[in-house]
Design brief:
alpha+beta; 4 helices; about 160 residues; about 35% strand; two-stranded antiparallel sheet
């Protein structure tokens, strides 16, 4: 399946799960230029963007090769814990059914944070940048993910809650 961005440069969609994609990249080492579509941007984010007169080139949420491969040897340390590859299905669930959505006011770019329940009172945190531009393509990119303490997202100077279940 091919998806076109606003500049009509096509995105080549990988046909499996995020875990399958990560395993392919780990095995191959360089990938094939494809991306994974995990779902759609939440309607609340679309409304927030529209209120700012920002329109999405596409409503799909994408994970690209760079976002995946940086976790192959990436200890998170103070910022949280790395999600094990065998749990990458949780990232897909978080896109489709977030617990809460925040705007990250401290980030240099406009990004939204989706949270999703994890284990022992922790949360899976996804950082999504709308209308991300790379190699002539524009898409809503999951820039990063990790496991954080729920209290980490309760900082109103950094995170502005825009939606919750």
């Amino acid at each position: 399946m091919k998806v076109f961005s606003e500049k009509k440069k096509e995105l080549i969609l990988f046909g499996g799960t995020l875990k399958d994609y990560a395993e392919m990249l780990l095995k191959d080492g360089r990938g094939d230029g494809s991306v994974v579509c995990l779902g759609e941007v939440h309607e609340t984010v679309i409304k927030e963007l529209s209120r700012r007169d920002i329109h999405l080139a596409d409503t799909r949420i994408i994970v690209d090769q760079h976002s995946v491969t940086k976790y192959f040897a990436h200890p998170k340390n103070q910022k949280g814990a790395v999600l094990p590859m065998f749990e990458y299905g949780l990232i897909e669930e978080a896109v489709k059914m977030p617990l809460k959505i925040y705007e990250d006011a401290s980030h240099g770019d406009l990004v939204y944070v989706y949270s999703y329940p994890y284990q022992n009172g922790k949360l899976l945190k996804l950082v999504i940048q709308p209308n991300y531009h790379k190699s002539g393509r524009t898409y809503n990119n999951i820039k990063s993910w990790g496991i954080v303490q729920a209290a980490n997202l309760n900082n109103p100077t950094q995170y502005r809650l825009i939606w919750e279940q």
